[in-house]
Amino acid sequence: MDAETPAVLALPGPVSRQTLPRLCADVRALLDATRAGVVVCDVGGLGPPGLAAVDVLARLQLAALRHGGRIRLRAPDPALRALLALVGLRFEVEGEAEQREPARGVEEAVEPGDAAR
């Protein structure tokens, strides 16, 4: 793997607190191995979302942040995204533009007469 390609960690369902230490170790090892700064967590196989999945994802994000990286979600179920939003957790989702950046190919229009900023 190169430094530009993030590693992928598939999270099989159901996840639990018992699997958490191994998953956190996997995240840290993948961050070390790739130096990409991102681990993509494929959450498509988690099944019905619940608070256990939210807890595991929050702890994986914390482990990644402590190790100088971050988590990006792949294939999150809409219900999981809603649950994450409900509890106030924000995750980058693969294939979506980051909030700080406009989508590629989109330019901000300037109308004649607009004041300079």
Give a nutshell description of this structure.
With 117 residues, the protein is of the alpha/beta class.
Descriptive tags:
Transcription Regulator spoIIAA; 34% helix; alpha/beta; globular; single chain; 4-stranded parallel beta sheet
Provide the CATH top-level class.
Alpha Beta
According to CATH, the homologous superfamily is STAS domain
Helices and strands: which structural class?
alpha/beta
Spans of at least 5 consecutive residues with low confidence: none
Mean pLDDT: 84
Q: What is the number of strand segments?
A: 4
The radius of gyration computed from the alpha-carbon positions, rounded to a whole number of angstroms, is 17 Å
Order of helices and strands: EHEHEHE
CATH overall fold name = Transcription Regulator spoIIAA
* Main sheet record: 4 strands, parallel
Range of helix content: 25-40%
CATH architecture call: 2-Layer Sandwich
Q: Give the CA-CA distance, first to last residue.
A: 43 Å
Domain STAS: 1-113
Biased composition (Basic and acidic residues): 95-107
InterPro entries: MlaB-like_STAS, STAS_dom, STAS_dom_sf
Protein name: STAS domain-containing protein
What does this structure look like?
With 117 residues, this protein is α/β, with parallel strands linked by helices. The chain has a single domain (7-93), classed as Transcription Regulator spoIIAA (2-Layer Sandwich), CATH 3.30.750. It has helices spanning 20-34, 51-66, 78-86; strands at 7-10, 38-42, 70-74, 92-93. It has a four-stranded parallel sheet. Strand 2, helix 2 (51-66) and strand 3 (70-74) form a beta-alpha-beta unit. Helix 1 (20-34) runs parallel beside helix 2 (51-66). The chain starts with 6 loop residues before the first strand and ends in a 24-residue tail after the last strand. 22% of the residues are buried. The model has no long low-confidence stretch (mean pLDDT 84).
